[in-house]
């Protein structure tokens, strides 16, 4: 039964090798999706290119469906899988700061690594900036510690909060996502910027 | 590549990560390892006693011996391979015609700093918190995702000159 | 149809299937009913009283005999047995004894009932090296401490067993008994614990 590494206590070295290989897949998929271009990423917020929306939600849907079916066929022990811990305040505040960073910088950390790999200088600058930001957080940590730790709810799932089954929640997300894909493609026509799209 | 196909591939990579290791993908965690290591090298005493850095220095091994560090090294290689295959390898700065390269670089550093700061506050970035978090249906993942994209939409108007 | 429409239809269909499926919990560390039954039917989980007597006489250091009767009923135990009453089974003091990979635990109670329950719990928790004494203390008494003399017409092998049992009886009850040796586990006892995976970016 999966997850294989924690259950069968695979060695750390092999685990790191697997991390590296998974990373290659991650980087390849991001670059193929066109996430190595900041203007393509930013396009989502102006409607001329909604690739981010499509790729992001498609990936999330595929992974959540995959986990659900693996669980259904008794191939995975979901109680071992890491579920992000929810600290209400820090998730929202952190998310808002990241949102501002996203629209100013044009990347998120994962895509900036990918873009830096193909030689985008702005991505390298962004990466440097990210290191500075993390350093600043580390230096000012005592100031934020209280808010950072406040209102801890644990590794809670949205389906539990809503009181519905995982499957039903996934269906609702898929329904919402297909709607967004439709709106996205409509927006791409309405806010078309062929001058930008041609460059990307 | 068709975005839906790229999304399916990305989703399968994420699923594989969960299947093999029980955890999703990430990026900002690796950058934190770099920062923690940097601080440790420059100011060992301070790092060890700090509330923030101390957490990552407790173990015997270096914070660079971390799952996410190896994963992000993989992202570099994977991104490079894909770019090479598609013929997209070139040193350049991408920006809207309305702004200078210099301004774009400054904005990139500023945006990066904000995202880096926010990723620590929010315990993960778009990959670690939002994408992987959503895949496991975690509430934190959805909240972070909505906060990131919602805010970006809200502020999009003010920074439109940078992009279009 | 364009890509988006085809893709939407596929994921909606999969989502609908997902919505119908009930929530389910898998646990990688427990056996299901079938596996449990299989193990019991094969008798792999049992140690017979004769086997136990042999192990004790040969002074096998790797066995740990656990008496799970309630503390007030704990008297005349099998030599070397420790008493872990059912209510303190998984307390900090004793819990580690069941979840380890060094010693072979032989669990018994008055009869099979209580010990079987304890054994099932250890199995469900995924612990290894736990066995049941077949027939419990009753069987121990009737076969080892007071073996029944076979009839004159009994087969040679039955007489063999009887002679061995009589020898064992002398060992456990008679004057020739060797001083009791308390064996303590030497190796650090560490079991397989279910570990939470680290994740996210923090």
Provide a descriptive summary of the structure in words:
The complex is a heterotrimer of chains A (200), B (164) and C (202). Chain A is 74% helix and 2% strand. Chain A is mainly alpha-helical and 200 residues long. Chain A folds into 2 domains: 1-81 and 165-200, no CATH class; 84-156, no CATH class. In chain A, strands 1-2 form a two-stranded antiparallel ribbon. The mean pLDDT of chain A is 91. Chain B has 164 residues and is mainly α. Chain B folds into 2 domains: 24-91, no CATH class; 93-164, no CATH class. Chain B is 71% helix and 0% strand. Chain B has helices at 3-21, 28-42, 44-49, 51-57, 67-86, 101-121, 126-135, 139-156. In chain B, helix 2 packs across helix 5 (67-86). The radius of gyration of chain B is 18 Å and the shape is globular. The mean pLDDT of chain B is 90. Chain C has a domain at 42-173: Oxidized Rhodanese, domain 1 (3-Layer(aba) Sandwich), CATH 3.40.250.10. Chain C contains 7 helices and 5 strands. Chain C has a 5-stranded parallel β-sheet with strand order 1-5-4-2-3. Chain C starts with a helix and ends in a 29-residue tail after the last helix. Chains in contact: A-B, A-C, B-C.
- Model regions low in confidence, pLDDT < 50 over at least 5 residues of chain A: none
Distance between the termini of chain A: 43 Å
Integer-rounded radius of gyration of chain A: 19 Å
Flag low-confidence runs of chain C: 175-181
Q: Going across the major beta sheet of chain A, what is the strand order?
A: 1-2
The major sheet of chain A is characterized as: 2 strands, antiparallel
Number of helices of chain C: 7
As a percent range, the share of strand residues of chain C is: 5-15%
Architecture blueprint of SSEs:
The complex is a heterotrimer of chains A (200), B (164) and C (202).
Chain A: H1 4-8, H2 12-32, H3 38-46, H4 51-72, E1 86-87, H5 88-105, H6 109-117, H7 121-149, E2 152-154, H8 158-162, H9 166-190, H10 194-199
Antiparallel strand pairs in A: 1-2
Helix pairs in contact in A: 2-6, 4-9, 6-7
Chain B: H1 3-21, H2 28-42, H3 44-49, H4 51-57, H5 67-86, H6 101-121, H7 126-135, H8 139-156
Helix pairs in contact in B: 2-5, 7-8
Chain C: H1 3-20, H2 33-42, E1 46-47, H3 49-57, E2 63-67, E3 82-83, H4 95-98, E4 104-108, H5 112-124, E5 130-133, H6 136-145, H7 156-173
Parallel strand pairs in C: 1-5, 2-3, 2-4, 4-5
